[in-house]
Amino acid sequence: MARVLLVEDDDAIRLSLGKSLTTAGHVVATVATGAEGIAAVARDKPEVLLLDLGLPDLDGKDVLAMVRAVSEVPVIVATARDDDASVVRLLDAGADDYVIKPFSAAQMDARIRAVLRRLGQDQQGESTVEVGALKIDPRSREVTVDGRPVELTRKEFDLLLALSRRPGTVITKRELLAEVWGLPWGGGDRTVDVHLSWLRRKLGETAAQPRFLHSVRGVGVKLSET
Amino acid sequence: MARVLLVEDDDAIRLSLGKSLTTAGHVVATVATGAEGIAAVARDKPEVLLLDLGLPDLDGKDVLAMVRAVSEVPVIVATARDDDASVVRLLDAGADDYVIKPFSAAQMDARIRAVLRRLGQDQQGESTVEVGALKIDPRSREVTVDGRPVELTRKEFDLLLALSRRPGTVITKRELLAEVWGLPWGGGDRTVDVHLSWLRRKLGETAAQPRFLHSVRGVGVKLSET
DNA sequence: CTGCCGCTTGAGGGTTTCTTGACGGTGGTG
DNA sequence: CACCACCGTCAAGAAACCCTCAAGCGGCAG
Q1: How far is Cα B107 from Cα B99, in angstroms, rounded to an integer?
Q2: Residues of A with Cβ-Cβ distance to B170 under 8 angstroms
Q3: Across A25-84, where does the E strand assignment appear?
Q4: Tell me: the pLDDT tens digits for A71-97?
Q5: Partners of residue B130 on adjacent β-strands
Q6: A179, B21, B23, B75: least buried by Cβ within 10 Å?
Q7: Do A96 and B104 lie within an 8 Å CB cutoff?
Q8: pLDDT for position B62
Q9: Is pLDDT larger for residue B60 or for residue B212?
Q10: Strand C: which positions are within 7 A of a protein CB?
Q11: CA distance B170 to B165
Q12: How far apart are the first and last CA of chain A?
């Protein structure tokens, strides 16, 4: 359903929650420290950040502040304290939601969905993305290469848009299936391949001579010019 | 920005939200019970009412009904439940908007502005919109193409107006149903299709050769010239 | 009461788009 | 070198989608 970054130092929680969320259809990346978390937010641009407050290296609130300095990503905070004052401070500091430990994976999943749904309502649309001579406008769903318009179908566009959210990053087909097709689905990699093939044709490139869509054997695909 | 009455029993939320909204430029009065809320609406005549559904003394829907009996004030309801049925009932009961708990102060501020904007527009009227050779005047509800007047029915006009608010942006039929028909639930896509068809005919274009109304298969429609 | 107008809904038709299986080529590995 | 996993493309059937027509239902005016 969504790309999630989980920042949690407790190995047991991190592994089990990560697994549960994956089962629930999310694409989960995990790190164990606040420092890694901040780096990962900047690098991977997750759609939701799950932040544990009791981190060993940095204070959770500092992490939150630093994340907020570089990203608008919605943040769900996990805290052991449930007094009103803490919660208020958290929300003021920019958290979008919070859960009190201990919490179930099911609840966390529900929170993630709730946060995404809310944002889906709010966000009017993203601004246009450019990767070299490739321009993608999410609002009008128009794409141009070297200024020339390209007609894409729904899935083709969504696929390209998903790749464009992290240009230069190799993205697995599994992730693309989750993001574009919205299914936790196994198998069906061929579907992605076929759409990629069509995309390449329309963008004026071939698999042998790629310009924007670069396959990385055994890993996935990345979007970048040349 | 606006005089707001906040009815919320949870101290933490009431205080923090009140503070945030004040910071955002609103004048905020708060009460903790439904009874006080009704009294305060009658007495203070706020410009917007933020109503929590989970009040201790009265059922939120009863409060809403009583408020509606004495005032036209726009109401934004905060609810913990987000199933479609509840939402429909709320809107039917006279709510102008709703947010799902938990929500951020920023979002609430956005909702307040949105509600005020909507109402402000309805009262004083918007300025005319032009999309290429298509002119739409919300006040007189007159439309011209290439200077030639076009007669539209109410729904046709509302549909065109909704599209014109975000020209060039693909808008889903769901959204149009919500905006023009006021129904947040699914189903009835055919209705939009038919009105689009009639609109096209009156605007002098066809689905195969669109000039203003561009269908984007699998996504929605967008308004733009050519 | 009757007829007209605008709106909603269902059905049909014609496309477009998506998925899936098959096949061949390629690169990595033992 | 042989094998295997992976990737790209094709083709065909299935599914989804959009448009239009037409029937039915109020509401409203005459």
Answers
A1: 8
A2: 139-141
A3: 27-31, 48-52, 75-79
A4: 888 999 888 876 666 766 777 777 887
A5: B135
A6: B23
A7: yes
A8: 79
A9: B212
A10: 5-11, 16-22, 27-28
A11: 11
A12: 31
